[in-house]
Design a protein that fits this description.
Blueprint: E1 11-16, H1 23-40, E2 45-46, H2 54-66, E3 71-76, H3 82-91, E4 96-101, H4 116-129, E5 141-142, H5 144-165, E6 167-172, H6 187-191, E7 195-199, H7 201-210, H8 217-228, H9 239-256, E8 262-267, H10 272-277, H11 282-290, E9 295-296, H12 301-314, E10 318-325, H13 329-335, E11 347-352, E12 365-368, H14 370-376, E13 386-392, E14 396-405, E15 411-420, E16 430-435, H15 439-448, E17 455-459, H16 464-473, E18 478-481
Parallel strand pairs: 1-2, 1-3, 3-4, 4-5, 6-7, 6-8, 8-9, 13-16, 15-18
Antiparallel strand pairs: 10-11, 10-17, 11-16, 12-13, 14-15, 14-17, 15-16
Length: about 500
C-alpha cells in the first residue's frame, strides 16, 4: 500500500557569501554539492541567487518558494553574512538546515580560504539571538560529498517536521476505564502546531451505520482477501463488516481533515466496540497504518503522534505495542541465551491484540481477541471478538520510542534501538521478543522513573539518530535513551 499520508520533501540549496570574500568560492562549492547530491541521492533544487545581503535573501527565498521547495539547506561556502543568512530561516515557511564548507586543499589557502568554520559560529549565535529553529548536523562542516550526505540525512527530519506541522489527530471516545495511563494534556500538541478533533464513539457508530451497503465494500473485501491469502482468512464472512469500517474511517478522514493535509487517529476499541460494531477493529487499524494512516489503540493520542513521526522518519509501516511482559527464564535459556549476547533482563515481549501490519509479521492471520472473548462471549465460539491480526512479529532491527506529555504539560521522549529476535513467542496477539541493550536499567530509570505509559511506538529499523534530531528540533529537552553500563542514570543506585 502506498504511503499517501506523509509529505514529499522538495529541498533547495542556497549558498551565502560575505561580501568581502570571493563570491565564486561559495557558488562553485555549491555547484559541487548539487552534483554530488544528484549523483548519490536524487534531485535537489539549486537556487541561483547567492545571498550577500537582505535583498538577495528575499530574492533567493522567493525563488525557492516559487520552485515548490518546502525545505532548505543554507550553505556557507565562505564565512557568510550572518544577518541575511539567518533571515532565510525567518522568511521561509519550512525546515531549514545550515552547513558550512571545509577547506579543500592546503595548496590554496590565500584566495581559496573561505573561513566557513568560523562563520558557522556566528551563524549559530545569530540564530539564537533571533530565536530561530534550524537543523545543524552533528559536525556541520564538510566537503561537497560530505555535505551532500548531510542533506540526505536532513530529508527525513524535514519530512517529519513538515508532517507534524500540518497534522490533525482525530479521536473517538475516551480512554477505557482503568486504562488512564496514556491520557495526557493536549496543550503541548497545540504548541507543536497539531490540530485535535475529539469525537464520541457514537459519532463513529453513526458514521459506520451510514456506510451499510456502501457499493465500495465488495472491492475492499476483495483487496483484503488478496492480502490475507487463504491461510490468513479463516473468517471470510467477517470481511464485509471490516471493509465497511475501513471506508468509514477513510471517508471521515477526507471530510474532517479541514485545513490540514495529514491525519492520524486515536480510537477507542473496547469494551463497547465489538458489541456494537460486531468485530474487533485491529486488522483494519493494521491496514490503515500500512498506507501511512496511524490508528492508535485505546485513544492513545501521543501514541498516534509517535506512530506518525515513525512513519515520516522511516517511510515504512510502524506499530504501537504494549511493553508487555518479561520473557520466561526457560524460554530464554532454551532459545535465546546460547545464540545471542543478551541477558535475560535485556529482553521483553512487545504485544498488542492485533494492530501490527501483516507485512511486519512472520506469518499473520485474522483471529479473535482472546481476552475480550472471555469477557464478552464467556469464552464461547467467537463472533464479535473476531478481527485481530495475529502472529509473531518478524525479526530484525527496531527502534522503540515515544513522544509524551507529562501531567504538567511538559514534552519528553525516549528512544531505544534494538532488535526483534527470531525466537518463537508461543503466545497470542501481535507479539515479538524484543532485545534492547541494558533494557532492564532503561525500564527502571526511564520508563518507570519518568512515568511513561505502557504503549511504545516501533519503527522497523534503526532510526535513533533521525528521531533524536526530530525531537530536538521540536524543542523536546528530555530525550532519554538506553544508556550503557558506563553511564549511570541520575536515579540509579551506584552501589546496586
Amino acid at each position: 500500500m502506498k504511503m499517501a499520508n506523509i509529505p514529499i520533501v522538495k529541498c533547495g540549496i542556497i549558498s551565502v557569501s560575505r561580501d568581502c570574500f570571493i563570491i565564486s568560492l561559495s557558488e562553485n562549492r555549491r555547484k559541487s554539492i548539487v552534483a554530488s547530491y544528484k549523483e548519490k541521492f536524487g534531485e535537489i533544487y539549486e537556487v541561483s541567487t547567492t545571498v550577500e545581503n537582505e535583498a538577495d535573501m528575499l530574492k533567493a527565498v522567493t525563488e525557492a518558494k516559487e520552485a515548490g521547495c518546502n525545505a532548505l539547506a543554507v550553505f556557507l561556502g565562505n564565512f557568510g553574512p550572518e544577518t541575511p543568512e539567518t533571515l532565510i530561516a525567518s522568511n521561509f515557511d519550512g525546515p531549514v538546515m545550515y552547513v558550512a564548507a571545509a577547506e579543500e586543499t592546503g595548496k590554496n589557502l590565500i584566495n581559496g580560504r573561505g573561513d566557513a568554520y568560523c562563520g558557522m559560529l556566528n551563524c549559530s549565535y545569530n540564530l539564537g539571538l533571533r530565536k530561530l529553529k534550524a537543523f545543524i548536523p552533528e559536525y556541520p562542516v564538510g566537503t561537497a560529498e560530505e555535505i551532500a550526505a548531510m542533506i540526505a540525512e536532513f530529508i527525513p527530519v524535514a519530512r517529519t517536521i513538515i508532517g507534524v506541522k500540518d497534522l490533525k489527530i482525530i479521536t473517538f471516545g475516551p480512554r477505557p476505564q482503568d486504562f488512564f495511563a496514556c491520557n495526557a494534556p493536549i496543550k503541548p500538541l497545540y504548541d507543536l502546531g497539531i490540530e485535535i478533533e475529539e469525537n464520541s464513539e457514537l459519532d463513529l457508530l453513526v458514521a459506520y451505520r451510514n456506510h451499510k451497503d456502501d457499493p465500495r465494500i465488495p472491492e475492499v473485501v476483495k483487496d483484503m482477501a488478496e492480502e490475507l491469502g487463504k491461510d490468513g482468512n479463516p473468517y471470510p464472512d467477517l470481511l464485509s463488516r471490516m471493509a465497511q469500517y475501513e471506508l468509514t474511517l477513510l471517508d471521515w478522514m477526507e471530510a474532517h481533515k479541514g485545513a490540514r493535509k495529514y491525519v492520524a487517529f486515536a480510537n477507542k476499541c473496547w469494551p463497547a466496540f465489538p458489541t456494537e460494531f460486531g468485530f474487533e477493529p485491529c486488522y483494519v487499524n493494521s491496514r490503515m497504518v500500512s498506507r501511512g494512516i496511524p490508528v492508535a489503540c485505546e485513544v492513545d493520542i501521543y501514541g498516534a503522534l509517535s506512530e506518525y513521526i515513525g512513519l515520516c522518519v522511516s517511510e515504512d509501516a510502524v506499530t504501537l505495542l504494549d511493553i508487555n511482559n518479561s520473557v520466561p527464564k526457560d524460554l530464554y535459556e532454551e532459545n535465546i541465551k546460547n545464540t545471542t549476547d543478551y541477558a535475560l533482563t535485556d529482553t521483553f515481549m512487545g504485544f498488542h491484540c492485533g494492530n501490527t501490519p501483516l507485512c511486519k509479521l512472520r506469518k499473520g492471520s485474522i483471529k479473535y481477541q482472546l481476552i475480550q472473548n472471555r469477557l464478552l462471549e464467556n469464552g464461547n465460539t467467537p463472533d464479535i471478538t473476531r478481527g485481530t491480526m495475529e502472529g509473531d512479529i518478524a525479526d530484525g532491527d527496531i527502534t522503540f520510542f515515544r513522544l509524551q506529555s507529562t501531567a504538567s504539560g511538559e514534552l519528553r521522549s525516549y528512544i531505544a534501538q534494538g532488535e526483534i529476535l527470531p525466537a518463537a513467542t508461543n503466545s497470542f496477539g501481535g507479539i515479538g521478543i524484543f532485545a534492547i541493550p541494558e533494557m532492564g536499567r532503561f525500564y527502571r530509570h526511564v520508563l518507570i522513573e519518568k512515568q511513561y505509559p505502557h504503549h511504545g511506538a516501533v519503527a522497523f529499523g534503526h532510526f535513533g539518530k533521525t528521531l533524536y534530531s526530530v525531537f530536538s528540533f521540536l524543542g523536546v529537552k528530555d530525550i532519554a535513551f538506553n544508556q550503557p553500563k558506563s553511564m549511570l542514570y541520575k536515579t540509579e543506585n551506584p552501589f546496586a
